[in-house]
Structures are given as structure tokens and as C-alpha cells.
Amino acid sequence: MSVLDRIKEIDKEFEAEAGKDITAAGLDGMRVKFLGRKAELTGILRSVASLPADQKKDTGKAANMLQRKISERLEEMGKRLAEEKRRDRDEIDVTMPGIAASPGVPHPLTQVMDRINDIFVSMGFIIADGPEIETEFYNFEALNIPLDHPSRDAFDTFYIEGEHLLRSHTSNVQIHLMQNTRPPIQAIMPGRVYRPDAVDASHSFMFHQVEGLMVDKGIRFSDLKGTLSGFCGAMFGKDTKTRVRPHFFPFTEPSAEVDISCIICGGKGCRVCKSSGWLEIMGAGMVDPLVFEKVGYDAEKYTGFAFGMGVERIAMLLYGIEDIRFFYENDIRFLGQFK
Ligand code: DAH
Predict the structure, then answer these.
(1) 88 CA from centroid of ligand 1 (Å)
(2) Where are the domains of the chain?
(3) CB neighbour list of residue 163: distance below 8 Å, 6 or more residues apart
(4) Is the CB of 310 within 6 Å of ligand 1?
(5) Which CATH number fits domain 108-338: 3.90.226.10, 3.30.930.10, 3.40.50.720, 3.30.1130.10?
(6) Cβ(249) to ligand 1 under 6 A?
(7) Does pTM top 0.90 for this prediction?
(8) Is 64 exposed, middle or buried (0-12, 13-18, 19+ CB in 10 A)?
(9) Which of 6, 38, 48, 252 is 20 to 30 A from residue 127's alpha carbon, by CA?
(10) Position 94 confidence tier, pLDDT thresholds 50, 70, 90
């Protein structure tokens, strides 16, 4: 075989290898194999001088051209490899599914409390705040619940150091508010309350209430009914019926419990409303003149109504939650349902 033919074969060999997918290491191998010191082509180039004169020119030219071609091609392949590597590292694949951010949501009790607040604010009530650590005076005495009076049993209480206790209802804020301001008063008072109840599906030692108070000249029981039925319609749906039943609270006279038509069965009777068609939703009444006396209001001049509702109970009815403990366990599977 002539040297010229051999050069053609080296060319074919190179083309065959260059046509395959190649790695950086494979490229180095090709460089050694085709251009290295011991490469066949290098040997041929070195020996051109000793070829017979009639072959020298063509062989030399062919060997040189092949060497240059191989060298250029290898360089090109090297650039392509580097480019591919860079692209693998940098490129943003716009077809990849995104990583969805999952923002949290307010706690269901917060959501329900916010709705209650919003409805009353839309009716002109302001939101007031008061202490959770309280004295006997604000939690009981000023609300016409004397020491040793049987009505205290209804408000079982956590006592702490000395005179202090954890408030057992939000009604304490009524007293602070009336001491600090003059009528007219139109306020709601949301917050935590504490009672030493054994924890079960419907009891917790801490829960939430929203208290309400309206005091002015000429406030009547019909104002209470109108305000609270307006609230119930906005909260539970405008077809919800409201009724007021006589009840007893030491701080109101007359006192009442407010029921709504059962939001589960629509009033037909079911397990939740115990077949009555009605759900008790809050306590209310006309502020007892004895309470006005305790805060120095003239009971001849002013009248008012007050109410108090449990937020957990309302949230449980609205969402069909059967166990109060779900609210406090902070299981993300529970909380995530309130988006
Ligand atoms: N404080 C009462 C309770 O915890 C709820 C309540 C009833 C508040 C009647 C009031 C009211 O302001 O007028 O059960």
C-alpha cells in the first residue's frame, strides 16, 4: 500500500471516530492517537523527506492537509463539548414544572373571629381589648356576680396568685370600657378565656369569645334583637332565622339566649341540633342596672344591651368540625383545609 493510500485510510479512521459521540477524555485520546508524537501520521510527516522524489510532493501535501484538518476538527469538537457543558450547567429548562409556593392561611379560629369582627365593624362597632389576667372585681363583682353566689358555679375559674385569676369570660372588658369611657358605647371585645374544664371533644381549658356592648340613652331590647339577627344573617346566611329565649345571666336583666335555625338541617331536625331545629349561639340581655352602678353610670339615664358568643362553637358549626381539640393541635392537614 502506498503511503498516500495509507493517509487516505487514516483520514477514514479519523472520520469514523469523529462521527461518534465523544467525551472530553475521548477527545484527548483522539488527539494523542492522530496528532501525538507516536501517531502514524506524525511518523509519515517525519519520513516524507526520505521518500522517492516523485512521491514527496503529493504525499507531503496530503499528510500536511490531513494533519491540519484533524487539528482543526479536534479543536472544533473541543469547543462544542465545552459549550454543551456550559449549557447543561446554566440553561433554565422552561418546561420543568414550577415549585409552587404554598403560603399559609390564617388559623380557622382567626378567620371566624375576623368575620365576626368585620360584621360588627360594618354595623358601627369598635373593637376593644382587655386583660386576660384579671381581678375578682372585673371578672365577677362588677358583673353582679357576688362572692359565694351560686351563679359563680357557672363560671368555674382558674385562680392564680393573690387576688388574680384568668378571666373566665370576656365580659370583664365591658367593665374596663365603661370605666374608661362615657356613653355612647358600641364595641365588641374578642379574646381568649380560661376555664378549668376537663378537655374533651367539646371542652377546652382555653377558648375564645366575642363580647359585645352597646350603651346609650334609649337602647331597647328591640335594638338587641335587630342587631343580633342582623349579625346572624350576615354570619350564617340571610335565610337563617333567629329566636330569643328567656335565660338568666347575673349581669343582664332581662337575659336571653339567642338561637339560630339549624344551619346543618335548615331547621328540620338533625343530630347536631338534637332534633330541635335550633342551635344556641350566644348569651345576651339588657345590661343590669346594678352593673351600671358599679361603673358609676346613671342607670336612670342610660340603658344598654350586651352579648357574648363562643368562637370555637361557631367555627365548629360552620365547618362541621366535631372535636374542639383539632383547633389547638396545629396539624397541618387540618389547618390546610381552610384556604
Ligand atoms: N359571659 C357569658 C358566658 O361566658 C356570655 C354572655 C352572656 C355575655 C350574656 C354577655 C351577656 O355579655 O349579656 O357564658
Answers:
(1) 68
(2) 3-90, 108-338
(3) 135, 136
(4) no
(5) 3.30.930.10
(6) yes
(7) no
(8) middle
(9) 252
(10) confident
